[in-house]
Amino acid sequence: MLVSEFISLCKEADKLIRDLLVKSTKLQGRRPKTLKAAAVHHLARKKGLPITLNDIYHIYGCYQPRIIEVEKIIK
């Protein structure tokens, strides 16, 4: 994955998080970096980009079970 692709994903993730926080109370109170990590992972998988939960863990420092938990709410 290129840096430009990752930056684009981050921008899309920010928009997704803003939209979801307005619509869903389940995500309110979650740590911002966990929300961002889950959103980036979700969007990358939708686009078929090669990113794993382990990659996300190393970038954001979020534990995989928390990312999966938030990603289930996003879906």
Automatic annotation (TrEMBL):
Annotated CDD domains: CYCLIN_SF
InterPro entries with a match to the protein in the record: Cyclin-like_sf
The protein, known as: Chromosomal replication initiator DnaA C-terminal domain-containing protein
